[in-house]
Design goal:
The structure holds two protein chains of two kinds. Chain A is α/β, with parallel strands linked by helices. Chain A is built from nine helices and 27 strands. Chain A has three domains: 185 residues, FAD/NAD(P)-binding domain; 131 residues, FAD/NAD(P)-binding domain, CATH 3.50.50; 82 residues, no CATH class. In chain B, 27% of the residues are buried. The chains are: A alpha/beta, B alpha+beta.
């Protein structure tokens, strides 16, 4: 414990969309001394490099680009005079919620907040995470790094590009690089379907006649100084490369869009329990973690496909943190566990109280048509189509939750195939 | 001779591959394989006039922020995207610029303006 620690009300770690939303809501809910701690030199996080549109369709009912979405929150942070501690990197959170950080201007600084909101977002999986054999030449980038080069720094990373993974960032970069004059030779996807949203498949891949190789993967990287080619092979049902199906594609750049990992090293230090499926904290309906007074929101909890949902979750985390910091009433932890049953990969929040309305975010395991999502026997929703890439959002009302038997400790959520339908 | 075109509907995650039949005057005479009415509406409009919002960047005359993000303030025909990039490649944005300022008006006679989606401040000012 550092005696010089700055006492604050709510400390928010990270100033991306989640952190800004959490800080704004905490302040609006009356929290005193809200501080946002951010390692880069400005607010906004990844939004500044996401120059494409499609942000805010749900939250603002407007079609905004990433920078425009960011500005809405940056302006509000300024209006509310929320303290921002930029170019400051949190290096540790102790189990009793002390924050240790370093800044090039102030050196080592510590905070003693009443409540913390974790909004560190996520990072990209890299080549090491998927173990692609071959040499180690220059020219291998994650899609997000390439996005920063092209949209912020002003460099196009290569001329002939292969993209592994058809997540949204991968597809958006396929379009972006094509427009900037590069040749995207292929987007390679190991699954039999595209990983991102349908609008991106149409507007980023089909619009530019970019070859989309499904059920395929990169099995080798060639090149000494610089990438010269990659070997692409088809895969079988178990996602193993099929011998004899290999072909070499000449390229100078390989972009990886192979998944995102919630960034939780700090959470672990603080003793926060993580869900092995989401990679993020186990949270309750107040977005509180197992550590009293530590809340979390956005991609640090689970990787979202839409920023709008990140904002909503973080609004909730910020408001809850304010309540905790103000000690108006205890923020109890939910005791009813939501368990993923057939077809469901995960549900956030994992714990609910059963006493009030709660919004559930969930993902399915496989694409399916004509299904019913059953939340125990208290709610059921029919859906024509579900896909792992599209988050399902359901709201359980307090009324529906009253149907729960007293003492219920677990609710099974499942995705059931509707009978009698083609 | 009637001809066929296929359009993927983006209205929902189902992504129906809608089959359109057009006559020699490009009039839609049949719509098939869509699972709902929206698929028909989308496909008919998409074949008639496929439009997209172009989002890109232009070079600036400012060193902290070498690029300024842009968008067309309304969707333009997708055939115009590449040509539009060539026009924007010649632009050098001069600070100060406010988000929403028009950088190129009536881009290639599409009726759409290219507007900044972020502020561009003069060098010695600190970034937001």
């Amino acid at each position: 414990m550092n005696l010089n620690a700055q006492k604050v009300g709510v400390a928010v770690i990270g100033a991306g969309p989640a952190g800004m939303a959490a800080a704004i809501k905490a302040k609006e809910a009356g929290a005193k001394d809200v501080v946002i701690i951010e390692r880069s030199e400005e607010l906004g996080g990844l939004l500044h490099q996401c120059i494409h549109n499609g942000f805010g369709l749900l939250y603002f009912n407007e079609d905004l680009t990433g920078p425009e979405y960011a500005v809405r929150f940056i302006e509000r942070v300024k209006e509310l005079k929320i303290r921002t501690q930029l170019e400051t990197m949190v290096i540790k959170i102790s189990q009793d919620r002390d924050i240790m950080a370093v800044s090039s201007k102030q050196g080592y600084i510590t905070f003693k907040p009443k409540a913390i909101v974790l909004t560190m977002g996520c990072r990209e999986r890299s080549r090491g995470a998927i173990n692609i054999p071959g040499t180690r030449p220059a020219g291998i980038f994650t899609a997000g790094t390439a996005q920063r080069f092209v949209n912020v720094e002003g460099f196009v990373p290569g001329k002939k590009i292969v993209i592994l993974g058809s997540g949204d960032i991968g597809m958006i970069m396929a379009r972006r690089l094509t427009l900037e004059g590069a040749e995207v030779k292929a987007v390679v996807e190991i699954l039999p379907y595209v990983g991102g949203l349908i609008r991106n498949e149409v507007q980023c891949i089909h619009d530019f006649d970019i070859p989309l190789l499904l059920e395929s993967t990169v099995t080798h990287i060639h090149g000494e100084q610089r990438v010269e080619a990659v070997t692409v092979a088809r895969v079988d049902r178990d996602r193993n490369p099929i011998a004899g199906s290999e072909r070499k594609i000449e390229c100078d750049t390989l972009l990886l869009s192979v998944g995102l990992i919630p960034e939780n090293e700090l959470s672990l230090m603080a003793g926060v329990e993580l869900d092995p499926v989401t990679g993020g904290p186990v949270v309750d309906e107040n977005m509180q973690t197992n550590v009293h007074g530590i809340f979390a929101g956005g991609n640090v909890v689970h990787v979202n496909d839409l920023v709008d949902n990140v904002t909503w979750e973080s609004d909730l985390a910020g408001a809850s943190a304010a309540r905790f910091a103000l000690e108006v009433k205890p923020v109890g932890r939910g005791k009813i566990a939501l368990k993923p049953g057939r077809g469901i990969r995960y549900i956030v929040p994992q714990l609910i109280s059963g006493l009030r309305d709660v919004t559930l975010y969930m993902r399915v395991r496989e694409p399916e048509q004509n299904v019913r999502i059953n939340v125990g026997d208290i709610m059921s929703r029919s859906l024509r189509v579900v896909k792992p890439s599209v988050m399902i959002k359901l709201t359980l009302s307090a009324e529906q939750l009253k149907k729960l038997e007293k003492g219920t400790r677990e609710i099974m959520v499942e995705c059931e195939k509707r009978k009698g339908k083609k | 001779m009637p001809r066929e075109e296929k359009i993927v509907c983006i209205d929902c995650p189902l992504g129906c591959l809608v089959k359109l039949t057009l006559d020699d005057k490009d009039k839609v005479i049949d719509v098939a394989d869509n699972k709902c009415k929206k698929g028909e509406e989308f496909a008919v409009e998409e074949i008639r006039n496929p439009v997209r919002v172009l989002t890109t960047t232009v070079l600036t005359q400012q060193s902290i922020q070498p690029l300024l993000p842009m968008k067309t303030n309304k969707p333009i025909n997708k055939k115009m995207l590449r040509q539009s990039m060539l026009v924007l490649a010649k632009v050098r944005a001069k600070p100060p610029i406010k988000m929403g300022d028009v950088i190129v008006s009536n881009l290639l006679d599409t009726g759409a303006d290219v507007v900044a989606t972020r502020d561009l401040l003069i060098d010695h000012e600190k970034k937001s």
